[in-house]
């Protein structure tokens, strides 16, 4: 399975877990370093991507499309692996 397909599968599990109305969240890491956290808000049917910088501070970005969310996460993971 490609890395992008795995990311999409994790995001879909957030959507499925949110069917009970609770906000779901997942962390994405590379080599033990947390790069971002994704939350799914079922009431709004949106994702929130919080990207952590090197100081551990987060910037939040909303997405209403699972594919765009997955692409952003994929790019973050690829950038970290190249460093």
TrEMBL record:
InterPro entries: YkuJ-like, YkuJ-like_sf. Pfam families: DUF1797. Gene3D superfamilies: Protein of unknown function DUF1797. It comes from the Bacteria. This is DUF1797 domain-containing protein. It comes from Pseudobacillus wudalianchiensis.
């Amino acid at each position: 399975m490609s890395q992008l397909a795995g990311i999409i599968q994790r995001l879909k599990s957030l959507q499925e877990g949110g069917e009970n109305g609770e906000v779901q969240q997942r962390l994405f890491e590379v080599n033990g370093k947390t790069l971002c956290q994704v939350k799914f808000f079922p009431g709004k049917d949106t994702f929130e991507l919080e990207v952590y910088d090197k100081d551990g501070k987060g910037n939040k970005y909303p997405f209403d499309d699972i594919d765009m969310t997955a692409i952003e996460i994929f790019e973050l993971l690829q950038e970290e692996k190249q460093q």
